[in-house]
Write a structure and sequence with these properties.
401 residues, alpha/beta, FAD/NAD(P)-binding domain, Enolase-like, domain 1, 3 domains, 5-stranded parallel beta sheet, 11 helices
């Protein structure tokens, strides 16, 4: 009976194991994760959980009984140290574990500021796991000064939480605007206005030189010589795919662990899925950091481990909660050449529709769930609503379908 070993214990690992059982695999399934906690959701960490509105048990992806019911061995607090591809064995802190098929769902690691510019000072935080929140949460007390470095979704969500808790917040973005890599100027402008209305100071086109402090951060020095007082710094400058284990095992690396269209790595007995895996799609190699991709790719890989031979066709979707606003995103906007705005029914709702050569490729919907669902359905079906119809207030959303 085939022994399947999954390294990494996040959303992709749980989705893959559940799918393997659902497809009838009766052999051994083992999941190894280096955190002490059972697998849990990560998106709420920078939102409801950081705000104290979600207990830890609600983060858990599966209840304690599920693992026994599904006969899945879960080894938490265990680190994989080395993959021996010749003997099909993984050396771990709990000893050697043999496999017939191995899946790497190792996720990604937040980028840190270098120690030499103050990245190791007390009060400097990243947000990726439960331990990060356990360190940050007690520091979020009213009227303290927090500086967020990085204007991506994690930084913006942390800024929103801090403002709701009564902290003074400055957000610094080195690029010309927030959300520069991931959203249009129109979406970024709407999110910027949201934060400004809630009292966040946003500094764009602003580089930092170093963090100042003796043992603990006290200020952020900017490249132009200015200093901003800071008792807490949250670093949100992106993540790097976790590839060290794969690289040491001789697997091909290309913007993550390089997989073919079915999720198989350069070793025929090793697969990958989730944030750490890159794959070919529409004449390019991409890597997606999202819950949707972790689930869908992991389920596709599970089927392929069992011989399905399916190509992975991603249906990207993302979301971000900031204050009382919800931003929902479908599709991938890379290479868009036109964007149109449709105003929603409420004053603070709008949707931004991305086109490439006349074809709808993505949508950002702010406080407009109906526009999001319509856009998502069109994109997933490979259909397009013309920009003229999208922007015409006389055209009902449902008629776009």
């Amino acid at each position: 009976m085939m022994k399947i070993l999954i390294l990494g214990a996040g959303q992709a690992a749980v989705s893959m194991a559940a799918k393997l059982r659902g497809l009838g695999h009766n052999g051994q399934i083992t999941i190894i994760g280096d955190e002490a906690a059972a697998p849990y959701q990560r998106p709420p960490l920078s939102k409801a959980y950081l705000l104290g509105q979600m207990p830890q048990e609600r983060l858990m992806l599966r209840g304690p009984d599920w693992w026994a019911e599904q006969d899945i061995e879960l080894l938490t607090g265990t680190t994989a140290q080395h993959i021996d591809t010749a003997s099909k064995t993984v050396m771990t802190t709990a000893g050697p574990v043999a496999y017939d098929q191995l899946a790497l769902t190792l996720g990604a690691t937040p980028r840190q500021l270098p120690d030499e510019i103050g990245g190791a000072l007390g009060g400097v935080h990243t947000i990726r796991n439960l331990a990060d929140i356990a360190r940050l949460q007690p520091e979020l007390t009213p009227e303290r000064r927090m500086v967020v470095i990085g204007g991506g979704y994690i930084g913006l969500e942390a800024a929103a939480v801090a403002r709701k808790l009564g902290l003074e917040v400055t957000l610094i973005e080195a690029a010309p605007r927030i959300l520069g890599r991931v959203a249009s100027p129109e979406t970024a402008a709407a999110i910027r206005e949201l934060h400004l209305a809630h009292g966040v100071e946003i500094l764009e086109s602003t580089a930092i030189s170093r963090l100042e402090g003796e043992g603990r951060v006290q200020a952020v020095s900017l490249a132009d010589g200015q200093q901003i007082a800071a008792e807490i710094v949250v670093v949100g400058i992106g993540v790097s795919p976790e590839t060290a284990l794969a690289e040491a095992a001789g697997l091909a690396i290309d913007n993550g662990i390089a997989c073919n269209s079915q999720g198989r790595t350069s070793d025929p007995a090793i697969w990958s899925a989730g944030d750490c895996a890159s794959f070919p799609w529409q004449d390019q190699r991409i890597r997606l950091e999202s819950v949707g991709n972790a689930i869908d790719m992991a389920e596709c890989v599970a089927a392929n481990i069992l011989g399905a031979g399916q190509d992975y066709a991603p249906k990207p979707w993302f979301w971000s909660d900031q204050y009382d606003a919800k931003l929902q995103i479908a599709g991938l906007n890379g290479g868009y050449d036109q964007i149109v705005t449709r105003h929603g029914e409420s004053p603070h709702s709008a949707s931004f529709w991305y086109y490439r050569q006349g074809r709808l490729i993505a949508i950002d919907a702010l406080n407009d769930a109906r526009a999001y669902m319509v856009g998502k359905r069109l994109i997933e079906a490979g259909k397009t609503a013309s920009p003229e119809r999208v922007t015409d207030p006389a055209t009902a959303l449902k008629d776009l379908l």
